[in-house]
Amino acid sequence: MNNKNIKLLLMKKLNLKEIYVTGDNKHIKIIAIGNVFIGLSSVKKQQIVYEPLIEMITEKHIHAVSILTYTNEEWEKHKK
Questions:
Q1: Around 69, how many Cα atoms within 13 Å sit in the side-chain half-sphere?
Q2: Which Pfam families match (predicted)?
Q3: CATH number, position 37
């Protein structure tokens, strides 16, 4: 699965405002932005992003994932 497909999958499943997916299929970096993360712990945010990817991870299509999550408000502050 390529980065574009991963991006489309996560956008559809998580109703995100923005998402950035970089790297190769073995090691990907995800930056996910959306209000779905409001009030959640860091662990819960990571779990939300992992859930749609779990089959690809267990089938070894993806080896490693780095995830950064932001609410819409946090992202606006981060970009400055």
A1: 22
A2: BolA (PF01722)
A3: 3.30.300.90
